[in-house]
Amino acid sequence: MSSKAEYDCIVIGAGVQGSFTAYQLAKKNRKTLLLEQFVLPHSRGSSHGQTRIIRKAYEQDFYTHMMEECYELWAQLEREAGVKLYRQTGLLVMGPENSQSYQLFKNTLQRNKVPTVVLTSDNFNQHIPHVNLAMGDGALVDITAGVLYADRALKTVQGQFQKLGGAIRDKEVVTDIKPGPVVTVSTSAGVYRAKSVVITAGAWANKLLAHTGLQLPLEVVKINVCYWKEKVPGSYNVKQRFPCFLLTEGEESKEHIYGLPSNEYPGLVKICYHMGSETDPDQRDKQTDRSDIDILQRYVARCLPGLIPEPAVVESCMYTLTPDRHFVLDCHPNYSNIVIGAGFSGHGFKFGPIIGKLLCELSLGEVPSCDLSPFRVKRFQGKTKSAL
Ligand SMILES: Cc1cc2nc3c(=O)[nH]c(=O)nc-3n(C[C@H](O)[C@H](O)[C@H](O)COP(=O)(O)OP(=O)(O)OC[C@H]3O[C@@H](n4cnc5c(N)ncnc54)[C@H](O)[C@@H]3O)c2cc1C
Ligand SMILES: O=C(O)[C@@H]1CCCC=N1
């Protein structure tokens, strides 16, 4: 390897966002290097695991609009690679009928004409057996929603990137970034130069941004990913048409609780709490707080009578949260050829293909094809810190 290899673009971080960005750049014939600190595939960031939810149901129109295009981009990748990445299951949204959050979900779906079925307390269990709908809760199903096969999706997009001539170097930690008209990136194994750099480093974003003099208001939390055993095997199975679900708020908490049908682990249903305890990404396994699991146990006992209310398997993952829970998709405030994709706040996987497209556009100096105003760095005015 030459000591200063030259690229059009270097993407730092081969999670879902970096991998889709690199793939989009390679599709536009840009000489692209994707750098990853761990040996791939790994389970130390935020994109690992077998499944993620994909949905159009959101509280804000702008996410629903982005998902309209994003479903098409997922389907394109499936066709291109000849791999199945999405399975439609529907998403059951439940929450206090009169609460702001539940009403926002319902209104966004209806305003955007997303195919939706509204259930009543009378017909709920005909459609959704083995779930107790709380008194006063509304329920509706976003028909377009389903499951993404996450590990498979990551492998597929990285493979397509390589087929297009892109280079992936894993087990290579980025140790320095020197801004300039040509950016210099140093790693544990070499030095590279590029016209632009995209930072998609997940929970490590601030560690990398420190080299560029910027700190974003990001909080990293560890999520206990819990799998719950069916009392009668198959009762919550994807083949029985059991949907993904999201409880906007409940007796146990004001935060969302969400789940996916049993499928990838036979007889086990994945159910998570949409919040965790603060962690350093390099010390994730030292964070042993289980208060999220206590909340889930009470919820499962109350509402999912067909599950044993004790997790059978607990895995770990991380969220990188912004204060408003919206993403950061922007150019660096001081260096227009350094692009940032960060703060995906526990809901970014489904957007991977469109985020890749947008970060690619930003890195090429093109006008982004979506309105990025909710995702700009300047919304944190007063909350960003200089790291110099
Ligand atoms: C439990 C859980 C459930 C979720 N459920 C859903 C869901 O149902 N639907 C949904 O849409 N989203 C969901 N999400 C969110 C989604 O998975 C994340 O938003 C997304 O994976 C974030 O991807 P990323 O590429 O930003 O981060 P990561 O996947 O963490 O990628 C960042 C990469 O950068 C690398 N890196 C960091 N620093 C360096 C360095 N110095 N040098 C080289 N490489 C570096 C890291 O090793 C890592 O591989 C969930 C997340 C979790 C944790
Ligand atoms: O993004 C998703 O769909 C999941 C479920 C709701 C909370 C966060 N992640």
Automatic annotation (TrEMBL):
Keyword tags: FAD, Flavoprotein, Oxidoreductase
Domain of life assignment: Eukaryota
An example Gene Ontology biological process: L-lysine catabolic process to acetyl-CoA via L-pipecolate
EC number: 1.5.3.1, 1.5.3.7
Xref: Pfam families: DAO
FAD dependent oxidoreductase domain mapped to chain residues: 8-362
UniProt xrefs under InterPro entries: FAD-dep_OxRdtase (IPR006076), FAD/NAD-bd_sf (IPR036188), MTOX (IPR045170)
GO molecular function terms attached to this record: flavin adenine dinucleotide binding; L-pipecolate oxidase activity; sarcosine oxidase activity
GO CC term (a single one): peroxisome
CC cofactor: FAD
Catalytic activity entry: sarcosine + O2 + H2O = formaldehyde + glycine + H2O2; L-pipecolate + O2 = L-1-piperideine-6-carboxylate + H2O2 + H(+)
Top-level enzyme category: oxidoreductase
Family label: Belongs to the MSOX/MTOX family.
Function: Metabolizes sarcosine, L-pipecolic acid and L-proline.
Protein name: Peroxisomal sarcosine oxidase
